[in-house]
Amino acid sequence: MLSRKASCDSHEQDSSYFLGWQEYEKNPYHEVQNPNGIIQMGLAENQLSFDLLESWLASNTDALGLKRNGRSVFRELALFQDYHGFPAFKNELVEFMAKLRGYKVAFDPNKLVLMAGSTSANEILMFCLAEPGEAFLLPTPYYPGFDRDLKWRTGVEIVPIHCSSSNDFRITACALEEAYQRAQKLNLKVKGVLVTNPSNPLGSTLNRDELNHLIDFAIKKEVHIISDEIYSGTVFDSPSFISITEAVMEKHVDHESDLLGRIHIVYSLSKDLGLPGFRVGMIYSNNETVVAAATKMSSFGLVSSQTQFLLSNMLSDKKFTSKYIKENQRRLKKRKDMLVSGLRSAGIGCAKSNAGLFCWVDMRYLLRSDTFEAEKELWKRILFEVGLNISPGSSCHCSEPGWFRVCFANMSQEILKVAIRRIEAFAESLSSASGRENLSHQRSARNSRRSLSKWVFPISSYNDHEPADR
Amino acid sequence: MELSKNPQLLSNIATNERHGENSPYFDGWKAYEENPYHPIKNKDGVIQMGLSENQICFDLIEEWIKKNPKASICTSEGVDEFKNIAIFQDYHGLPEFRQALASFMGRVRGGRVRFDPDRIVMSGGATGANELIMFCLADPGDAFLVPSPYYPAFDRDMGWRTGVQILPVDCDSSNGFLITKAALEAAYEKAIEDNNKIKGLLLANPSNPLGTLLDRETLTSLVSFVNEKNIHLVCDEIYSATVFKSPSFTSISEIIEEMGSEICNRDLIHIVYSLSKDMGLPGFRVGIVYSYNDAVVSCGRKMSSFGLVSSQTQHLLASMLLDEEFVGNFLEESSRRLAKRHEMFMKGLEQAGITCLKSNAGLFVWMDLRWLLKEQTEEAEIVLWRVIINEVKLNVSPGSSFHCTEPGWFRVCFANMDYHTVEVALKRLHAFARQEKLAISSTRYLRNHKLQLSFSFERYDKSCVHVRTLFHRTRCPLTPQYFLDISVPMVRAASRT
């Protein structure tokens, strides 16, 4: 009776990633009303810097009352549905994007297309670049929502590029080629590679080698590169962020290869500015046909004119944006250091990270066995016994069991401390409950802790006595 | 940027024409954009009458916003809510927003039916809503029946990325463009014969471009039809609050309440709605799918992730639409002003000797210019249309762009401009119609007397103007000034007898 899309479950919303959310919604933590509730650590949101946005609003009355120089622009906004977007807004966005990249690259507002969130942007790129049944390669682990965003209504397939902890989950030329061959064997035509840089869930930026491997691969196979750079403003530590555009420029790519016409960037204000409710996403492409097609497709999900107006005002305040970016990054680093330190004192390590709103946590040694079933068991225990909703690596298609994504920027500092205490207590209970029987397990756990230094980023600036963040 | 030599670099969808934006429908818009009318700066510019927008009641909304600063998250009164709203991306939508929409939709239907807020699914405007419902109900290659004439962008919205086919059910002026069950049955049978899989029927009620309503009897028979065939019924009711005189609007929701679930399978019924026309807020992108089918609501809700309404907008409109006093006043005043504008426009057309289909809703009229066609063909209609754009300087929409099978009809919008501009447009139409009538009667006279028309520039002194009619278009061009100052053309007639 309904379409196949409606009846199937390719939206993947039955995965654990979403089930954890549902459990949280049934029993959400509240410091007063429900102190034993579940703490949400599966939501990659940036809630650290709202005070900065609010104070900007307080001092900018024109944008408040939908006014420009005192004159009401309500009518103009109410009618504005041009899919080319607010010119002023696009100008500010390209400037903002350039700023985040240290002005090493410049962007042309005419190559920018706006749509409702990066969810929509990613789907639109699939509609533009691939037929149903064709494939994109994605390095694992990757954001669980891609299964819905890239595949569901488009019919495009995802073929994973397997990355492993043996080299910090970096993308290698070998892994790229292996994935390509696997796709061929499955009779899937590969149209491109999609990477998230900085990575979700790893929280690290791609290094020059990885970017060069991607570029070489895309030239050789004549495929597209989509670089989802929605976390580019959350880079809080070195090494600094290298955008795909910068990498291509530095490589002095031969124009014969037409590579530039196959590079597309996805961006959004949901993570960097912490405004997911406003649904501001965008595609940046050098390919005129893609820009033209994506612009028409954006009709299905334009950005509200009211929102475009507000944000173009906000982003035009350059002093504010510089201050915001710097302060936001400082707070993110501090928060991440706090989580890493807390995990370390519980004997748990994380992958090295310099960006994002989460840590990629190594709990392999806590697994009963080196299997995804054991990972799921552990995840459930952490959800129901410890009361933390974190995201199991399997939901991110990680090829190794035992890794979890844990978010730190979507809660107050106090709640994070509660979460850390619970983790410490849990780890404690595991080691005392293990007893004689699991002595060997503990030994290997100790070995793992010794090798933590390989993973944990040195904490130099975290200070217990600093005033609480929001 | 040069594309790769690889011809399959991009998808078919990205490179095909199914977005429909290269159709002549949009040429008129381009003419307007290149030369837009302005009462002071560009009096001879093109007046935009191809844009179905409601600009009549902004003052009421602006006043409400001024009086309710708390509704905006940007004011000092409302900024407390900023953080909660800015992070809210739940695809269920703000509960108060859904309640507000359900309440508003009920008010628009005179309180005769209640809507369940939990059945409201958000989307990026009605554009997004129409696409979303197709993704839920049909697979690529499946077909939907749509009575013609219909809104041109349905081809894009329903079919471009979904792969769904639209099969028009042709209606014509012989019965006032009414949809009959017989016509539907015939269209259905033919579609089946041609090996199409029909998944449903889509209706726009009130109709764009006709401005008419489907009556109770017709709606009931259409519901029976879809139940018999076990296909879906999607009712696009985005103009429901633009009904400005009787008969009053009957929503599909009322019909199915009356019919009861034994006769009507509610799982087949879906409504598309939006605030773009009724409230004149197309920029805010508020579209809705309201479905009586639980599986469609569930699936649609997940799909709405691809086009959620900005939380800032949800928050503002929730407050506004829950203000019952405001809503009551707005609906009444909006209806009154639309009626007045419609009446003024119709009177002007009548004086020009131009007739329209009788209508009581919408932001446009369906104008009958068949008498101006050289021949009853689509080509002749396009010729006429280009004259209206380029010489009369009005962007109107030709019936063929609405898939009307009867040439000579045009949709003309009247609510997207101020009073003065309507007057200017009417004057131009008046002048044009008069001139054409004159030319027609001159030609007939000359033909009857076996005379031949010829024009020669040198024969006129400068005070005369050259006539250019549809019958002799290849001769001399007319200046726009002509249409503002009427003078009798001087022609030289040579007897051929």
Automatic annotation (TrEMBL), chain A:
GO biological process: ethylene biosynthetic process; fruit ripening
PROSITE patterns given in the database record: AA_TRANSFER_CLASS_1
Signal peptide (from-to): none
Keyword set includes S-adenosyl-L-methionine: yes
Pathway note: Alkene biosynthesis; ethylene biosynthesis via S-adenosyl-L-methionine; ethylene from S-adenosyl-L-methionine: step 1/2
Subunit structure, interactors included: Homodimer.
Protein name as annotated: 1-aminocyclopropane-1-carboxylate synthase
Species for this entry: Carya illinoinensis
